Amino acid sequence: MRTEQLEYIEAVTRLGSLRRAALELHISQPALSETVRNLERELGVALLDRHRSGAKISDEGQELLPHIIGVLEAVDRLRSAAHDQHHSSRMVRVATVNAATVPLLVPAVRDFRAENPATQVEMVGSQQDDIHRGLREGRFDLGLVNYLDGDDTPPDLQTTELLRGRPVVCLRTDHPLAERGALTPADLAEVPLIGMRAGYVMHRYAHRLFGGTAPQFAYSTDGAELGKVLVAEGLGATLLPDFSVAGDPLERAGLITYRPLLDETTRVLVVLQRRKGDTPRAVRALHASLLTRAAALTGTTAAPTPGGTQP
């Protein structure tokens, strides 16, 4: 039994004529008729009632029609899944809030591409809410998101903790505050502050640090990467997780540095999120590459957050 035999039966039943079905299927009418007869012989059932005026499905065929349609629908689902799998294997879409992009995401993508040279990686900078929405809608395959320790994570997304760090003050290396071992919120009154826009975790943290009073930001940026550039250009200081600064090219070049906040116990997390359920092979491979890179950065094995699971 072949799939096209079932497709021919469906077409004849729908069109009520061997001739019209042959025209739609772009085959000759004798070839169509012979194919249907072969199926009837194999099943031992007359599927069609043939008349000079046309052909219609027989009573026996009518009873089998739901099974025929079910097989064709299953084949369509298989083809669709194979198409999606092929598309996903050609591109993996990662959304990130930017913090830890350089020390975490870039090396992980480089290692992934070395093993999967035919797969394109699309990296999109976005905010947490947009990333969650994109994961649920299937626009993103993976999301790198920041949380403050104790924040709840979405129960419908698989969440794996990659990095855990502390908030620090990112400064230009030659700034006077860089001579101190640790800083206080009061120290930051001496320097223009570069803040993250609303919607980023470090924006929320800054309000917490200053006791709920909105800090006086001199500049506001869309993500950590631009914030570090502004610091390197001498425009001020910014609050970032330590893992976002350590190992950054600007830090390695000696243009920026960071100092801890005195008596600060808050922890900032980088987590990797994706939809639950079956995941294409390429997405699993990049997921694993990010876990490996995070473990190399921390010297530990990344563990799932409460409510999340390891891949």
Summarize the structure.
By secondary structure, the chain is of the alpha/beta class.
Can you walk through the features of this model?
By secondary structure, the chain is α/β, with parallel strands linked by helices. The protein is 44% helix and 22% strand. The protein is built from eleven helices and twelve strands. It has helices spanning 3-15, 18-25, 29-43, 59-90, 101-115, 128-137, 201-209, 224-232, 242-245, 249-252, 281-298, and strands spanning 48-51, 54-57, 91-96, 120-125, 142-148, 157-165, 167-172, 193-196, 217-221, 237-241, 256-260, 268-275. A five-stranded mixed β-sheet has the order 4-3-5-12-6, sandwiched between helices. The chain has a five-stranded mixed β-sheet with strand order 9-8-10-7-11. It has a two-stranded antiparallel ribbon with strand order 1-2. β1 (48-51) and β2 form a beta hairpin. α1 (3-15) crosses α3 (29-43), α1 packs across α4 (59-90) and α5 packs across α11 (281-298). The longest helix is centred in the first third of the chain and has 32 residues, at 59-90. The chain is rod-shaped, with a radius of gyration of 30 Å. The two termini are 39 Å apart.
